[in-house]
């Protein structure tokens, strides 16, 4: 992928520390653009809506709860239909592209973009770009109509295909320009959104009247700013099947251990929420919370203690947890996939062997361990009811924003209200489980597992805390 620097639009500031992190608009670089009446004004479906349109000055606050001395006042532009649009319906040629790994809800987002454009704005020309970003210049397109997409939300995967990598910004924009595309909807994770930001920059450099809208996608829920990612609820729900199977297997044998590996490359949200939802899990291991195997307070000691107490146990591990424990000879720290993600070893399989070997050496306890990896089963299922509704709102927010001339933005709920967020905010870092937060404390309370922190680390951390001034109030993220 080509390197690009996302230029920030100047923030709008106001009294009491108010800051609006605004998103770009076509009128920023194309002067004297004509506007048109929003077709929603004449849509019978919206005839009984009290307020058709979002006020121009409506914003969404990033934080609701703030400390009296903490930074405050950061807002994003509220999503929704505007009174004026910048595209004539019969002149619009939209395209949709999906990139990266599969995620429940992809087809729902595609369906609702197509149907939203058609039924709300009278747009009849929508193309599906086959096979991810490289499809712009290497593959055919699929015409998408309400009839074509009518039932696709009942299927997993994506009907237009996906891929990793293959991003050549110049070629992509050449294709957009040659085809006469003027609305681009990009569905993907942080790498995909970086690509969308680069596409927007090139489009702006060429002065093209093309809106680029992103819909953030990651099953791991690791995109910052937004409340959650679509597909996450479905993933947590589907993970219950694997955890339940592990529980049944472990209960049915003497010293049975059900060992489940769930998705979570850098963030352990799926493992944490699936554990809390299940109530059958005795130990949850995530990337944000280091653990060790041998010695007092280690995982092996905890497993032995739990088996002696209950005769069985269930362990859940996120795929990115414990990677540092894998021996140097099988680590692939410098290898990456086509999206630039670090290739991870199968820590679940490795850990299951380590546990078996440890207890085999003890010769005093025979264990029966069953390893379950439902990774691809979880991400390939159709989205559940909650995610279907959420995907509809995301698709409609993106549709309204692009038609209103906003560009270079991604959509998502911030404190329950959908907003337009600059690309740079969702690609600047990854959202992670905060192990000093109440939610992780709730998990530890639910499983009764130790924190697996070494005594020397506790002393060192205690010393650091004594050197820092005490905070009287939790700000919602850190202690």
TrEMBL record:
Keywords: Allosteric enzyme, ATP-binding, Cytoplasm, Glycolysis, Kinase, Magnesium, Metal-binding, Nucleotide-binding, Transferase. Residues 454-479 are annotated as: Disordered. It catalyses: beta-D-fructose 6-phosphate + ATP = beta-D-fructose 1,6-bisphosphate + ADP + H(+). ATP binds at residues 101, 164-165, 189-192. InterPro entries: ATP_PFK (IPR022953), PFKA (IPR050929), Phosphofructokinase_dom (IPR000023), PKF_sf (IPR035966), PyroP-dep_PFK_TP0108 (IPR012004). GO terms for molecular function: 6-phosphofructokinase activity; ATP binding; metal ion binding. It comes from the Eukaryota. It is found in: Cytoplasm. Pfam families: PFK. Mg(2+) binds at residue 190. Pathway: Carbohydrate degradation; glycolysis; D-glyceraldehyde 3-phosphate and glycerone phosphate from D-glucose: step 3/4. Belongs to the phosphofructokinase type A (PFKA) family. PPi-dependent PFK group II subfamily. Atypical ATP-dependent clade 'X' sub-subfamily. Catalyzes the phosphorylation of D-fructose 6-phosphate to fructose 1,6-bisphosphate by ATP, the first committing step of glycolysis. This is ATP-dependent 6-phosphofructokinase. It comes from Diospyros kaki (Kaki persimmon).
């Amino acid at each position: 992928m080509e390197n690009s620097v996302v230029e920030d639009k100047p923030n709008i500031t106001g009294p009491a520390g108010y800051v609006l992190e605004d998103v770009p608009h076509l009128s920023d670089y194309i002067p004297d653009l004509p506007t048109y009446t929003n077709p929603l004004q004449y849509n019978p479906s919206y005839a009984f809506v009290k307020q058709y349109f979002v006020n121009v000055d409506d914003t969404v606050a990033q934080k609701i709860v703030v400390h009296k001395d903490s930074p405050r006042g950061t807002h994003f532009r509220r999503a929704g239909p505007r009174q004026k649009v910048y595209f004539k319906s019969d002149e619009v040629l939209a395209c949709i592209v999906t990139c990266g790994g599969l995620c429940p809800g992809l087809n729902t987002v595609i369906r609702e973009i197509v149907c939203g454009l058609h039924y709300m704005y009278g747009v009849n020309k929508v193309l599906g770009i086959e096979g991810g970003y490289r499809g712009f210049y290497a593959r055919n397109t699929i015409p998408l109509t309400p009839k074509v997409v009518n039932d696709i939300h009942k299927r997993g995967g994506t009907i237009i295909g996906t891929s990793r990598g293959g991003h050549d910004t110049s070629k992509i924009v050449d294709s957009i320009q040659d085809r006469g595309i003027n609305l681009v909807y990009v569905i993907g994770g942080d790498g995909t959104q970086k690509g969308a930001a680069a596409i927007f920059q090139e489009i702006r450099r060429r002065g093209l009247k093309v809106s680029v809208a992103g819909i953030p996608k990651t099953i791991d829920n690791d995109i910052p700013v937004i409340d959650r990612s679509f597909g996450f609820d479905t993933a947590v729900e589907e993970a219950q099947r694997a955890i339940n199977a592990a529980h049944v297997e472990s209960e049915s044998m003497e010293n049975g251990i059900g060992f489940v590996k769930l998705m979570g490359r850098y963030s352990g949200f799926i493992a944490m929420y699936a554990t809390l939802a299940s109530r059958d899990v005795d130990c949850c291991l995530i990337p944000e919370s280091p653990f060790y195997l041998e010695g007092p307070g280690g995982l092996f000691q905890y497993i032995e203690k739990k088996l002696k107490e209950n005769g069985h146990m269930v362990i859940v591990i996120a795929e990115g947890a414990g990677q540092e424990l894998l021996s140097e000879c099988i680590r692939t720290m410098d290898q990456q996939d086509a999206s630039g993600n670090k290739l991870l070893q199968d820590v679940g399989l490795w850990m299951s062997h380590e546990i078996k070997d440890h207890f085999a050496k003890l010769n005093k306890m025979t264990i029966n361990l069953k390893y379950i990896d439902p990774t691809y089963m979880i991400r390939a299922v159709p989205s559940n009811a909650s995610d279907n509704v959420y995907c509809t709102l995301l698709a409609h927010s993106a549709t309204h924003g692009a038609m209103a001339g906003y560009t270079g933005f991604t959509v998502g709920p911030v404190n329950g209200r959908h907003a337009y967020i600059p690309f740079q905010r969702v690609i600047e870092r990854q959202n992670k489980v905060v192990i000093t937060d109440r939610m992780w404390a709730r998990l530890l309370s639910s499983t009764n597992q130790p924190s697996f922190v070494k005594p020397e680390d506790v002393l060192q951390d205690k010393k650091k805390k004594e050197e820092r001034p005490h905070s009287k109030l939790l700000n919602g993220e850190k202690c």
